[in-house]
Specification:
With 129 residues, this protein is of the alpha+beta class. 16% of the residues lie in helices and 24% in strands. The radius of gyration is 19 Å and the shape is elongated.
């Protein structure tokens, strides 16, 4: 049974003449996918300047979530205070989802500017020492 492979960028069916390891149907799709990834990375906001500045009105706490593996469940860390800002402690450097909560624990969601995630640098990583 032949499984039809599809381009990761445009979704079109791959020609049979393309190598088995190809991810894109053409050089054009490969370039456009690279540009899209670069654009998405540019939208990532670093944690040091954004957690407090991007918090919605009434936010008292936030928590961070990172997926365990490619399809694993989100593992959450926190809560951490927004004002005064409590820097997060997380197990590894990477891109985390952020959710804000008011003082009563009501989920205020994620501001649009942070929907791509927030990059936590190594300086904020929790150690067992």
């Amino acid at each position: 049974m032949d499984v039809e492979r599809r381009c990761r960028h445009c979704g079109r069916a791959m020609r049979k003449s393309i190598t088995a390891t190809a991810k894109y149907c053409s050089d054009s799709c490969k370039v456009m996918a690279c540009r899209q990834r670069t654009k998405n990375r540019a939208r990532l906001v670093s944690a040091s300047r954004s957690i407090e500045q991007c918090a919605p009105d009434g936010a008292a706490y936030y928590r961070l979530g990172m997926r365990g593996g490619r399809f694993g469940p989100l593992q959450f860390y926190g809560p951490f205070t927004v004002d005064p800002l409590e820097p997060p402690t997380v197990p590894e450097m990477g891109i985390y989802q952020i959710n804000y909560f008011d003082a009563s624990g009501r989920d205020l969601g994620t501001p649009e500017i942070l929907e791509m995630g927030i990059f936590i640098r190594s300086a904020l990583i929790k150690t067992d020492r």
